[in-house]
Write a structure and sequence with these properties.
Elements lengths: L2 E11 L2 H8 L12 E8 L9 E7 L5 E12 L3 E8 L1 E12 L2 E12 L2 H33 L2 E7 L1
Antiparallel strand pairs: 1-7, 1-8, 2-3, 3-4, 4-5, 5-6, 6-7
């Protein structure tokens, strides 16, 4: 198995509550996030969304597809959503939001292990391609989110 630890940072001129409102409704993401073919809610979770399970179907710019579930494990409106992934990728995803002077900073942390045989076998040489693909998907998400909010994207980055 190959392990990846990636961080994406977006900065959008919009109130944190509006940004959070769009991010927390991932079943609507396919309307604005290129590469995301579908999201299904599999389990409702509790009143705060803890235990809620979503299934994500992604298609990379290179044409390969990934399907994984995320179970929400932590939620603190409007600053944090965290979940555990299982399926083609296994690990942890975490959205952290903060706002300063009308600019919302979004930090997405993705710490996952590949579970598909072809990814595990090719990871020693394909790692840079997988990282590039993830970064391209995240860049598409930043642009799509800004459009969805009718807001200005003023920065993206990676750590």
């Amino acid at each position: 198995m190959a392990t990846f630890s990636m961080v994406s940072i977006w900065q959008i001129v919009a109130p944190i509550e509006e940004v959070y409102g769009v991010i927390r409704h991932s079943t609507h993401w396919p309307a604005w996030w290129r590469g995301l073919e579908g999201v299904e809610q599999l389990a409702p979770g509790d009143a705060n969304g803890i235990g809620r399970v979503y299934r994500y179907h992604w298609k990379s710019r290179l044409g390969y597809r990934l399907c994984f579930d995320i179970r929400v494990t932590r939620h603190r409106s409007p600053r944090l959503i965290e979940g555990v992934a299982s399926g083609d990728l296994s690990g942890l995803g975490r959205w952290r939001l903060s706002e300063q002077s009308g600019v919302t900073s979004i930090r997405y942390e993705w710490q996952v292990t590949t579970t598909r045989l072809w990814m595990n076998l090719t990871a020693p040489i394909a790692r840079p391609i997988f990282v590039w693909s993830h970064n391209a998907v995240m860049a598409d998400g930043a642009l799509g989110l800004a459009r969805q909010l009718d807001a200005r994207l003023i920065g993206t980055g990676r750590c």
